[in-house]
Amino acid sequence: MLDDFFTRALVAGIGVALVAGPLGCFIVWRRMAYFGDTLSHAALLGVALSLLLEINTMLAVFAVCVALSLLLMVLRRREGLSSDALLGLLAHSSLAIGLVCLAFMTWVRMDLIGLLFGDILAVSRTDIAIIYGGGAVVFAGLCFIWNALFAATVSPELAAAEGIGTERANLVFTLLLAAVIAIAMKIVGVLLITALLIIPPAAARQLASGPEQMAGLAALIGSVAVVAGLYGSLQWDTPSGPSIVVAAMVLFMLSLLPVRYLGARRNSRISGGRS
Amino acid sequence: MDATAQVPPLVRLEQAGIKRNGEWLVRGVDLTVMPREIVTLIGPNGSGKSTTAKMALGILKPTDGSARQRPGLRVGYVPQKLMIDWTLPLTVKRFMRLTSKLSNTEIAEALEETATTHLMDQEVRHLSGGEMQRVLLARAIARKPDLLVLDEPVQGVDYSGEIAIYDLISEIRDRLGCGILMISHDLHVVMAATDQVICLNGHVCCRGTPSDVSKSEAYLKLFGHRADGALAVYEHHHDHVHLPDGRVRHEDGTLCDHCPGHDGHSHDHAHASHGTDKKAQAGQAQGVHDA
């Protein structure tokens, strides 16, 4: 069944979407979209390093993302620049350093477009094994820290006061995020990873009434976006990574339509009752 | 309190202080909360009440001095504010389970106590200020804590609701046997069941026990007899005022850079005398002083 490149792409894409959705919920809740962006920009530096040191690409991307988030933690403690500016600084300098490094390595013929926008149609069986193996680890890790991370998201102080290990949960979350970016890079590319992390949760928000439900819906919506995007790219001969993101965007727009109407009606009823 | 000699305190601050950007938010605070004891912190805005509570909770580490909790202490915390983002779908029921595993019965019982059972399936971000306060309180007591820390628990609650919450807090103290550390939003009116009032103003200004509100005619006029038993006054007198530039103005008009008793020990406040707290006079308790 995995002989066909298109099937392999579907299986790999769904695998990534299944973990990106729940993890992405936390990015949306914690307003960390720009942080996700920063990590994915840094992924390019990871690719350059992997070529330079001749090590596994995913491993190098993971290592660079982890190093970058630790660096950010240290820099944030030294009060000075706002974390907004810090993120921008780290995102673009790591992207630039990555590109400069790649240019120096004249012996490497690099498909930059594939790196930036992903090459989901070229996934191998090994890639699928890594996606599902790594994905299972990320999923297990997220389940393990879910309650603590959620409490820390709702109120860091409340969670810390009541004995929740917020620091540990935050650290594990950062590691998981780095892992997902390393895994997902090949599917949608450096520039569009954040889209896969935040658009499905944003679409799920309209329909969910609880955090766990929202995570499940985000995984589902992400998978639907992968399937729709890939068939769309086959149909209209469009680049696959961007097509997936466009499909996710369309799902988000659809989620806005009926529920907003119902929500408005419900809200007016509530305020009417209160006045 | 003879029992205090044997029982270890739930939390103990010793000469604790926090410095941020070269300025002391609060310093030299000595504070203990024993089981079944109610300690109320009062003081003007920015006097370090919340900072002190956060040191006791272990959220902030003191720059100076020490803050120790009894090992294995189970804390229930009612923060001053809690903003829930639109992106976060969170019902009251799920919110109750935020930091502890609770059965449906336990959740229902806790909400019942604060008269918020009808809010169970509401989204937290749709709650009004008073509803939010009561849900926060329900969540904290559902944990059956050893130490309950309440940061202005009655803000946004109307007057009769305030009395009901104070009654509930002392009832919880009796039932669970927990210690309570409470920050009062009012400079002069505290919960009657309070064992110890600590007045902060960047340091411990003074401490003492509240006097019964029913003894103060002015308060009776203000609040009526319904307040009997729930509220008390803490009348006190400050001999100096902290100016915005960090200097201190004494009663006789002299200025200096430090408080007279910056270590927090030597204070000569006259307790239960006629209050002339300059900052408080601008506040809502004006009528009391005029009386």
TrEMBL record, chain A:
Chain segments annotated as transmembrane: 6-29, 41-74, 86-108, 129-152, 172-202, 214-234, 240-259
InterPro entries: ABC_BtuC-like, ABC_TroCD
Keyword flag Ion transport: yes
Cellular location(s): Cell membrane
CDD domains with a match to the protein in the record: TM_ABC_iron-siderophores_like
Example GO biological process: transmembrane transport
Membrane topology: Multi-pass membrane protein
Domain of life of the organism encoding this protein: Bacteria
Role: Involved in the high-affinity zinc uptake transport system.
Family listed: Belongs to the ABC-3 integral membrane protein family.
Protein name: High-affinity zinc uptake system membrane protein ZnuB
Automatic annotation (TrEMBL), chain B:
Superkingdom field: Bacteria
Ion transport keyword on record: yes
Ranges of residues in domain ABC transporter: 11-226
Biological process per Gene Ontology, one example term: zinc ion transport
Biased composition (Basic and acidic residues): 264-280
UniProt keyword list: ATP-binding, Cell membrane, Ion transport, Membrane, Nucleotide-binding, Translocase, Transport, Zinc, Zinc transport
Presence of keyword Transmembrane: no
Stretch list, region Disordered: 264-291
GO molecular function per UniProt: ATP binding; ATP hydrolysis activity
UniProt xrefs under SMART domains: AAA
Family statement drawn from the similarity comment of this UniProt entry: Belongs to the ABC transporter superfamily.
Protein name: Metal ABC transporter ATP-binding protein
Source organism of the structure: Roseibium aggregatum
